[in-house]
Design brief:
The complex is a heterodimer of chains A (772) and B (162). Chain A is α+β, with helices and mostly antiparallel strands and 772 residues long. Helices cover 29% and strands 26% of the residues of chain A. The longest helix of chain A has 28 residues. The relative contact order of chain A is 0.13. Chain B has a 5-stranded mixed beta sheet, with helices on both faces. The chains are: A alpha+beta (772), B alpha+beta (162).
């Protein structure tokens, strides 16, 4: 049976369908203490003192830790693009002199149960002298606190002669945009379990494996341990979307407490905490200008934006600003480009990973700009885009920029053809005409489009281990983290085809940061591409080794042997000798008769190194229907055409795209994490966060094309994780504009029904009679 | 010291007696006292529905029900859905076939919610089941796989009920 390219059922499902998933809350070592945090309820102020005496009086409270206890710990390090210039802005493990956001940890209570720990936390009195918070994106007032309203860094990228482009332009188009704070908001809040084994001096950590190697190294540094003394046990993860598994203050406090108290420590974040303490994203303002020729040809683009970084720079560093600046040019030709991204500290929850970090912002800026150009030039927005797309003959397309340690060169792509295919597949001409007809009848219906290029980051390398046991089960060990995307299944599919076994017979150990020495995380749609290629190379080596053993055992030449369903036999013979994979594995064990030359039994390594990024791309088309009386938007349909080069499991790729598109549409229409004028969060319960349910979620239809495989890896894979989310918000924005006949109306996300209603009313044609 | 109460419930057909605080939620009692960690907790305020279980056949948010309220009642959780020999039920099978599971956090809640609805009315139309499923949240899937799975399961079960 062939596996790659088929929508096979996932190997992960059974555990979840039967309630056997092992999420971090279900990890309960004996004698475990529960950790609850006392958090700042003030956006900004001086921390004058903490009185924990009442908490200590509560039976079951074991310890209350504050800055005094944790003072020796360094601030949390940066994972992406670490830079000494960022050090002043890093987050302390626990507040010392100031609190800088609502939700910042000020004390930690450890108790015999979660309930007692929470009771104890309520009894800790933190004396905070409030001061005026910095909440806007302008510079702060210079005071004694160097973090107050500071610009942590400016990200700059540029190529070509921008002045020349603007001088040569027939038209200059400018837009101002903003996007509110939003969150990854996985269904399972964060959590961690730490255990300290004093006999070996070993810290064991259970949790999300997204950045497990970074976490191991960071804990080794923070606690002064050799890396080998930090063990990582990955758990099931209830959604990530960028926020799970990044090193957090809670993780460090739990580890410190476990070592101090010599007892396991559990931390399970509440949803309320998640809404104020987990990293948020978007939160940016932008001004973009385009230099355009009379025929609509894009000559140059100039983008300035400011990111609301919140109180500190977290382990994600400046990822969003960096990728927004690098990816704003998108799929279009241009001679000149300049981006300046200002990263501003405010007294809000620190910003960090959020699905399609930077790319979603870039797409919103660029695609709104394209719509504005179309409106100003009186062109069809589809045609304007088509006119400016990079052509296949221009691939690989050097964008003359660097990001995340790699050069930005679009590896391959047939942009116009994915547009054509998507229009044909979903009869989008008919969809647009139908919307026009309904508008002519007085309904508010519109169609909008966005074209996107995404980046699959290589992050340099990936390493896997493969082996076969006496039962003929193939084991694959990888650092790639399973967090709901089904990477376990996809890697098993790759192994299955190459080795010649059923994929259910491939046991994949994901997020294994203890057995795999080096890893660079699961982010930016890299795992199937990078771990998948390491797996492919490893599986080929394993196959060669199996056939070598079989050849010796059967006394035949290797070329004639095949492996099918875990049995090895001569290809052209229906009868005669055949061997079971398990028997070969047994015979090849070290010290046994058919041990291979390397004496390591049926085990191999797979290594893949590359610093060449892959650039998946596609088009998103949204339909918006607006209720004239309420301004409420319904998005019945989103169509996505997307090229991931090679869809290892098309159903799982589609699932990523559908889920992402709904997330993106939600962020454009419903979800945000606002604060009031004094900086207090307004969204502190899940009921305040308008995540769509089955009724509100658009129906997303996906066309996968495989026109442009990635040249960087043999299977031609490109990442799929952000294919749905990146274009969803600008497509929805354009559809709303079209529905109410107001080009350039949506400048601010999420767009509120009140704003739409006001615009609709302002535009209502007043009957002539009434004017008279 | 907080008072503690002994309570007994039939959990997945087995009589269980646990000692809990009056404030202990059913979700916490199932997870921490009974070891039934399949009932996931997403918000602890009754919004997401990840913790949905059946109490006397009715879908209930286990995070907003006190454990003691389940005293003397019949509680069913996701762990009790498969047959004793481990075969997946129609709904579970449909979730796998239609790729309705991603991270798996919301899955038990959707399964119990739909099970409750279908048992109440085995002739439930697909659209009615989709309406019931609006009660719960999923962040991964965009609901496409879940909707497909529910449609197929409803059709299969309706056919079987005839």
């Amino acid at each position: 049976m062939r596996h790659v390219g088929r929508p096979l059922p996932r190997l992960e499902d059974r555990a979840f369908l039967t309630g056997r998933g092992r999420f971090v809350r279900g990890v309960v070592p004996s004698r475990a203490l529960s950790l609850a945090l006392v958090r700042s309820d003030t956006p900004y102020g001086r921390l004058k003192g903490i009185d924990a005496s009442a908490a200590y009086d509560l039976p079951g409270v074991v310890a209350v830790l504050t800055h005094e206890d944790l003072a020796g710990l360094a601030p949390l390090p940066v994972r992406f693009l670490a830079n000494p210039a960022l050090e002043p802005f890093l987050e302390p493990v626990i507040a010392a002199s100031h609190v800088r956001y609502v939700g910042e940890p000020v004390a930690a209570v450890l108790a015999e149960s979660a309930a007692v720990a929470e009771d104890g936390a309520e009894l800790v009195a933190a004396e905070i002298e409030p001061a005026a918070p910095h909440l806007d994106l302008g510079p702060g007032t210079v005071g004694t606190d160097p973090l107050h309203g500071a610009e942590a860094m400016t990200v700059r990228k540029a190529f070509g002669d921008l002045n020349g482009a603007f001088h040569a332009a027939d038209r200059i188009v400018e837009i101002d945009l903003d996007w509110a704070r939003d969150g990854a908001m996985p269904l399972e809040p964060r959590g961690v379990v730490m255990d300290w084994d004093a006999s070996q001096g070993t810290l064991t950590m259970w949790g999300a494996a997204r950045a497990a190697h970074f976490a191991r190294a960071a804990f080794a540094d923070l606690l002064g341990l050799p890396r080998a003394a930090v063990r990582f046990e990955p758990t099931d993860v209830g959604g990530s979307f960028g926020v799970r598994g990044e090193l957090s203050p809670e993780d460090v406090i739990a580890a410190f407490a476990a070592r101090l108290l010599e007892r396991p420590v559990r931390y399970a974040e509440s949803r309320r905490e998640h809404l104020v303490a987990a990293s948020q994203g978007r939160g940016m303002k932008a001004r973009a200008r385009a230099a355009v020729a009379a025929d609509g040809t894009l000559l140059g683009v100039d983008v300035g934006f400011t990111v609301d970084q919140g109180a500190y720079v977290r382990s994600d560093g400046l990822l969003a600003a960096e990728l927004c600046a690098a990816m704003a040019p998108g799929p279009y030709r241009m001679d000149a480009y300049r981006a300046a991204g200002h990263v501003r500290l405010t007294n809000r929850t620190p910003a960090g990973g959020l699905r399609a970090a930077g790319r979603a912002e870039a797409a919103f800026i660029r695609e709104r700009l394209m719509d504005e150009i179309a409106a100003v030039a009186g062109m069809d927005p589809f045609e304007l885009r088509q006119r400016n797309l990079i052509e296949p003959a221009q691939m690989p397309a050097d964008r003359h920029m660097e990001t995340l340690g790699s050069h930005v060169t679009y590896d391959s792509g047939r942009y116009a053809s994915v547009l054509d295919a998507t229009v044909k597949r979903f009869s989008l001409d008919v969809v647009r005409r139908r919307a026009e007809n309904r508008r002519a009848q007085g309904e508010l219906v519109g169609v909008g489009a966005a074209v996107t290029v995404d980046v699959s980051a290589p992050s340099k390398f990936e390493h896997v281990l493969l082996s076969v046991d006496r039962r003929g089960t193939v084991e694959l060990v990888t650092a790639a983290a399973e967090q709901g995307q089904g990477v376990r299944t996809m890697l098993a599919q790759i192994v299955a085809d190459i080795v010649g076994v059923d994929y259910a017979n491939v046991r994949v150990s994901c997020g294994d940061a203890t057995r795999i020495a080096y890893g660079s995380g699961t982010q930016l749609s890299r795992s199937t591409m990078m771990a998948g290629t390491a797996t492919q190379l490893g599986a080929e080596a394993l196959r060669a080794k199996i056939l070598g053993g079989a050849r010796a055992m059967l006394g035949v030449s290797g070329e004639r042997l095949t492996i099918q369903n875990g049995r090895i036999k001569e290809a052209d013979r229906h009868f005669g000798g055949s061997l079971d994979l398990g028997d070969i594995a047994a015979a090849m064990e070290p010290g046994r008769a058919f041990a291979p030359a390397d004496a390591r039994g049926l085990t191999v390594d797979g290594w893949f190194a590359s610093d060449q990024m892959a650039f998946p791309y596609g088009v998103t088309v949204a339909v918006a229907e607006i209720d004239r009386n309420t301004g409420i938007v319904r998005v019945p349909q989103i169509y996505v055409g997307y090229d991931v080069g090679n869809a290892i499991n098309p159903a799982l790729v589609e699932a990523q795209i559908v889920g992402g598109a709904v997330h993106g549409a939600a962020s454009a229409l419903w979800t945000s994490l606002p604060v009031d004028a004094t900086g207090l969060p307004l969204c502190t319960a899940f009921a305040d966060y308008a995540m769509p349910g089955l009724a509100e979620a658009p129906d997303v239809e996906v066309l996968l094309v495989e026109d442009a495989p990635a040249p960087q890896n043999a299977l031609g894979m490109k990442g799929a994780g952000d294919g749905g989310i990146t274009g969803a918000a600008p497509a929805v924005a354009a559809a709303i504009d079209a529905a109410i006949g107001a080009p350039g109306f949506v400048k601010s996300l999420p767009v509120s029904p009140a704003a739409i209603l006001a615009e609709v009313r302002a535009r209502r044609t007043v009957p002539v009679a009434r004017i008279a | 010291m907080t008072p503690r109460i002994r309570m007994t419930a039939a959990i997945n057909g087995e009589t269980r007696t646990v000692v809990v605080e009056p404030r202990t939620t059913l979700a916490d009692a199932l997870r921490e006292e009974c070891g039934l960690t399949g009932t996931n907790v997403g918000c602890e305020e009754g919004v997401c529905g990840a913790c949905t279980v059946l109490v006397d056949g009715e879908p209930v948010r286990a995070c907003t029900m006190f454990a003691v309220q389940a005293h003397g009642r019949e509680v069913r959780t996701v762990e009790g859905l498969a047959s004793p020999t481990g075969e997946l039920g129609v709904l579970q099978q449909a979730f796998q076939t239609h790729h309705a599971v991603q991270c798996g956090c919301c899955t038990p809640g959707f399964l119990m919610l739909a099970t409750g609805a279908i048992e109440r009315d085995p002739a439930l139309e697909e659209t009615d089941l989709a309406e019931v499923a609006e009660a719960n949240l999923c962040r991964c899937s965009g609901y496409k796989g879940i909707a497909r799975a529910l449609r197929e399961a409803a059709a299969t079960l309706r056919e079987a009920a005839r």
